[in-house]
Amino acid sequence: MRTLYTDLDIKITVDGMAFRVLNIVFEQFLRSMPKHSHGQNSYELHYIPYGQGKVSIDNTIYDIVPNTLYMTGPYVEHEQIPVKNDPMAEYCLYFKLESCTFPGSLNAETVASKFERVHFWYGQDSQELYPVMQQIFFELEHKYVGYMIQVEALLQQCIVKVVRNYENKQHSKLHFSPSNLVDSKYIVVEESFLYEYETITLESLAERLALSTRQTERFLKDYYGKTFLQKKADAKMSMAKIYLDDNQLNISEIADRLNYSTVQHFSYAFKQYYGISASEYRKSQKRQTY
Length: 290
Known about the structure:
Blueprint: E1 2-5, E2 10-14, E3 17-28, E4 33-36, E5 42-48, E6 53-57, E7 60-64, E8 68-72, E9 78-82, E10 89-100, H1 111-117, E11 120-124, H2 129-142, H3 147-167, H4 181-195, H5 202-209, H6 213-224, H7 228-244, H8 251-257, H9 263-274, H10 278-289
Antiparallel strand pairs: 1-3, 2-3, 3-10, 4-9, 5-8, 5-10, 6-7, 6-9, 8-11
């Protein structure tokens, strides 16, 4: 049994390093595979989901059992010998490392660098490669919309999972860069209006943004096209409709929840915003329900 994909042009990038995927194979070995090796910058991932056998790596014999993972890099000679009454099955991915987007700048702590440095590794997979392999073959077989994006993402996962096997749960020394100040301000603004729309004031928002009230108004106008009061009204009026859809809440309770001083104040604000009174809106929703 053999499923082979060789006519693919798959190129993925990890940490600026280009990986070209030349072969994607699933095979159950009914015969031994003769000794062979791969050329410069070539790496082969071998994952055994079931079955047994032996692999000879540079004349050293290793036992193959279910969930074995072994990697063979440039010039590493290897041959596979299955057990006849329980022949091993193997997922095999053939990678060729092509180039680095930023030559000479590949950090030794990156996944790509760690992958490149290891020319042989053997052990039990601890990173659940099996479902990733199955998904790769599912995507390639069915070719549903977006399957190429899925396959590329899954292959990137394979590379990360292989390196994690090498590293044995070591913590990364590389981390996401902090967001820039403008991006951070977006989050502050949006969370404020999402969670504190009843009580947020221009002064308190300005304090969180480390801006003056005038600068805050300018920021809101530049990035949202609205003033502070318009943003607050949007949030409160959106929530007002949600409350009005709940027949267990009367309008007085809704006004109180939205921090309006009086029912009349809430009713006026609602009608100004939607062009219909709160009670009329509630009645129209009931009619649509029936």
